[in-house]
Amino acid sequence: MKIELVENKKQSLYVYENDILLFYSTIDFKWTKKNIIKIFDDKDDLILEIEILQLPFKLQKIKILFQKTIEEKVIKDFTYDYILFNKNENLKRQKDDFFDLNQNYSYSLKGIKIAQTKQKMWNSPQKISLEINDQYLYYKNLIIIHILVMRTGFNSD
What we know:
This protein is mainly beta. It has one domain (about 1-155): Beta Barrel (Porin).
């Protein structure tokens, strides 16, 4: 399954599957670097609101301010490299090739690669392609939300 994430001029990201909107994100930049990211579904319902304390080029702390349960999955914690949900299950994100300048990552569950993102580093606005193995579609929304959290407002760092 292939999904596209596209950035607009306000550094929001929109997620499309077969040209149908699934989710979108917004960011409220604060001078204190405690930015607020909100993620909405296709019906404009808020599903996640987080506060991110950022330093240049490094994600420091994520605080979940609001969360709507997504397909019976409860997000416990985020970092740049993983998303922790339910009873200590986690999806890990790792760079495909350390020396590659593009932003290509894989997501794995218990050591099994279940999804991959592809993005060219110097594209502005951002365009991210996500491919998920069909047998792991159960995790699709968690992966999308992780990407939205990590990449919304990314070009402002």
